[in-house]
Amino acid sequence: MRMKRTLATVAAAAIAATGLVACSDDSNDNKDNNAKDGGNVTVKIGTTESDQEAWRVFKDLAKDNGINLDIVQFSDYSPVNEALAQGEIDVNKFQHIKYLAAYNQSSGNDLRIVGSTEIVPLALFWKDHTSLDGIEGKEIAIPNDPSNQGRAINVLVQAGLLKLKGNIADELAPTPTDIDKDASKVSVVPVDASQTPSAYNEGRPAIINNTWLDRAGIEPSTSIFQDDPNSKEAEPYINVFAARKDDIDDETLNKLVELWQTPEVEEAVAKDSKGTSVPVYRDKQELNDILDRLQNK
Predict the structure, then answer these.
(1) pLDDT in tens, 164-182
(2) Exposed, middle or buried: residue 122 (CB in 10 Å: 0-12, 13-18, 19+)?
(3) What is the topology classification, in CATH, of domain 123-227?
(4) Which stretch of 5-19, 21-35, 183-197, 218-232 has the lowest confidence by average pLDDT?
(5) Which of 15, 28, 90, 180, CA to CA, is 20 to 30 A from 255?
(6) Domains 4-119+238-296 and 123-227 share a fold
């Protein structure tokens, strides 16, 4: 794994100033020695959300536990996994299992899961309404991207508003063609995720993910229905720490998972998500089994 003990404050400052890789390939013996002599280990971690409060708390907590986090901010999702696969970073935390599965399938790489963080339920919003009453016959805007469309349809299935046809290709990722229109109470219109708040503001019901809720200033607490974070349908959307296959049992990376799951970080995550995030504590093997099932499909 690409981690290295910080030997001196001056060296650490030089690394930070130049933006170079903060560590080099070390043997397991060297990593063990770092732990024994009390030296700090530097881990380069990639994310798209480093401006959130949870990351400040996480970084401070890691430092208290002998881990210097070199947080690499990406402006877009697409390069983060590739940077990990190429060894430019040691670990990342920005994605759910389904996104990771799709990356592995398209790239031919085999990134794996170190541990779980949280899940953010996907919810249905309808301006000036507090329940599903009166929604029958309405047209509901749903995001059309691969990461959210199937989940949005399943939200409406869980709400009892849609029925799916039998023997569909993938029950975890249904498409509009899988909907039994005659047996359903509503219809759906797939739109770009950025347009779902516009549909909401026009008075139409809409499935809106947290990114666009925040940008549109819509309070998550005003949803009229959300999916069950403990359901099988929600499993692909558990957010995770990902690493290269050979590193998923690394002591330091597993320590980072433990630290993210502490009350201090979870409180900050809840604040960032305005109370919508739900902590997830799943066994590493179970998480990778879910990953494998999604990739096989």
Answers:
(1) 999 898 888 899 999 999 9
(2) buried
(3) D-Maltodextrin-Binding Protein; domain 2 (3.40.190)
(4) 5-19
(5) 15
(6) yes
How many other C-beta atoms are found inside a 10 Å radius of the C-beta of residue 2? 19
pLDDT digits (tens, 9 = 90+) for 86-134: 999 999 999 999 999 999 999 999 999 999 999 999 999 999 999 999 9
The beta strands (E) that lie in the chain are given as 4-6, 40-47, 67-73, 91-96, 112-116, 118-119, 123-125, 139-143, 187-191, 206-208, 225-226, 239-243, 278-279
- The pLDDT mean for the chain works out to 88
Could you tell me the strand order of the sheet in which 206-208 lies? 187-191, 139-143, 206-208, 123-125, 225-226
Please name the residue that has the structure tokens 């400052």: 13
- Answer positive or negative: Cα dihedral of 1, 263, 219, 120: positive
Torsion of CA 263, 264, 269, 270, to 10 degrees: 60
Domain 4-119+238-296 fold is: D-Maltodextrin-Binding Protein; domain 2 (3.40.190)
